User: What shape does this take?
Amino acid sequence: MLLSYPNKEYENLHYTSFYDSLLGRILLAADDKGLTGLWFEGEKYYCDNLDENHIEKETPIIEETKRWLDIYFSGKEPNFMPPLNPIGSEFRQEVWEILKKIPYGKTVTYNDIAKQIAKYRGLDRMSAQAVGGAVGHNEISIIIPCHRVVGTNGSLTGFAGGIDKKFKLLELEGCNMNEFTM
Assistant: This one.
């Protein structure tokens, strides 16, 4: 259903659409700048930053995201990135920028990211738990690959979509799953 909002209050509307993946239904959300959300139905922080005044509509950003997901779920690494517009604090944005640099099929630990943030900020150290909170609140999962972050001991932990989905995403990317514990 297409809604019309004549007020300026709704100038930056959010648009939504569903995508049926190998791992379940995904809700996509975007504004005019980029993708703002990608959530598996029922995940921990489902729709946390989705404006309640959104319209279900295919937009060029959502269509490009679905094309990216089609390639990804076919077991290949997409060679492009849809426009992204994640919503979060400066700290979360810093963590998410690091997540975007984790290569396809590779993993890093929360501690690795904490060390990078500490170095970037000129600090002696940074809490891996604080990093874990930022990783866990990533609302554009898969594309901002929070599933590629694991515990120091190789444990698969901290994926809002569920550990079973994290396992399958890493497996899809060709990771050696014998290296991880659940």
